[in-house]
Amino acid sequence: MSEQQQGPQFSIQRIYLKDMSFETPNSPEIFREEWKPQLKLDLDNKTTKLDDDNWEVVLTITLTAKVGEKTAFLIEVQQAGIFLAKGFEEDQLKNMLGSYCPTTLFPYARETIDNLLVKGSFPPAMLAPINFEAMYRQAQQNQQQAAPAASEEAQH
Fold this sequence. Notes:
CATH superfamily: SecB-like
CATH architecture: Roll
Strand order of the largest sheet: 1-4-3-2
Strand content: 35-45%
Order of helices and strands: EEEEHH
Helix content: 25-40%
Number of helices: 2
Structural class: alpha+beta
Largest sheet: 4 strands, antiparallel
Distance between the termini: 56 Å
């Protein structure tokens, strides 16, 4: 590569499944119930700096289905990626790692979840796309609002 390449650089180094769990604690009885599940989706995103320019981003999706009071299934998938991010301002870097990278990982996690559900004899969840950019902005706003309140409490 040329030394003249100065601008920011971003690339996907690797995408991989870090961990997954699938439980059907009430099978086979749950298959005899009328299938009207209440689904609960939880998302988490964790970033770890590997070296100067490489970051691991782990998107954790937990999907729980209940039929009445009984848990039909519980799935947790940790979809991860290693991303090269070089030459970005701190705010840009945080935005890339907090919104763009999870957006990239989500389709892989969604496919894994649907495959697990089908193998478990459940219909696929077909999770709708998620706006990680909006979630990231909301988290940033919440942090900014919490910071003055925390410093105000510390002064009392």
